Amino acid sequence: MGRSPCCCHDASVKKGPWTEEEDKALVEYIQKRGGNVGSWRGLPKAAGLNRCGKSCRLRWTNYLRPDIKRGNFSDEEERLIISLHAGLGNKWSTIATHLEGRTDNEIKNYWNTHIRKKLMRMGVDPVTHQQLPPDQTSHHLNGTAAALLPEALHWAAAAASLGSLDTGALMQALLLQQLLQVIGSNNDTTGLINNLAAAKAMQNSSGGIVPNILLQDQINYLQPGYLCNTPNFPEQHVMQQKMTNDTSPGMSSFTAAEMADQLCNTAASFASHDVAPAGDWSPAREFAGLLEPMMDLPDLCSLESDSFWKDILDDSYRL
DNA sequence: AATTTCCGCAACCGCAAATTA
DNA sequence: CTAATTTGCGGTTGCGGAAAT
Length: 319
Description:
By secondary structure, this protein is an all-alpha fold.
């Protein structure tokens, strides 16, 4: 048993950056064979390259392949990566299958250089997607925002626990988490906390994902009957499309996404005063008051590029 | 203007899974 | 079935350019 020594250990085989000539030779060889590489090990010799087969494969799959998308990642792609990573972890190749034209290496690099840092700044552990302890958080949220974050992160964790590939619920959870950071800058958040707790209970009653919690009267005013469509709620249309595209069998992530969707619908409903919940709805009214100024939220993943989010984050850094 | 430090990305490396003989 | 070989994956490194001093 054992492995034959790889040509990569041969000192005479070239390493390091590829030259234009090498690229050309590799592309021409593969194209001449109609894209059928055959054996990577035998390729270098056949193509007249002094490289190891492994190096050739990497160069082709990560750089020379004709279907590779170039340029910066869009916000939509970034959102997708974050959501998929929350459910899959560092399964870069699996994540890459969900992003057309992007390679696992590219996504991994983008994660390590951009997204990871962004999450850290937001006080979110990029490995677990859960809130970091205060002493490990790279900035200091004010007390209210800090108190709210666990609520949203609880959601993210619940969605992640499904272990499914679909991203809807996690996207919504991240949306909510960010929303909460904003709302947290307001003073009185009792209503918000009540509503979140009730929403979790709603999720519990319809899917059994999050155990325990809550008082019946809190659940009452969050029944699906009270939900309304709010097309201008951030990301709503994106989520609807994602869920429509989800054809995976079984439970799901679709269900989770739907429930998460309902929560956001609820938030939006309260905010727009379109809904009058039964019973004691003063918490909802209060919640609406907090949300109302937020209805024109800019793109939620443009945390650094967008001045709206940047100002909010800067505020929290100062505190 | 020169030097140092930081950062992003392409490429490498070792391991494990998959495939082949 | 087993060993040998190939392929794929994820972590890590190091080069080169940009930013800071």
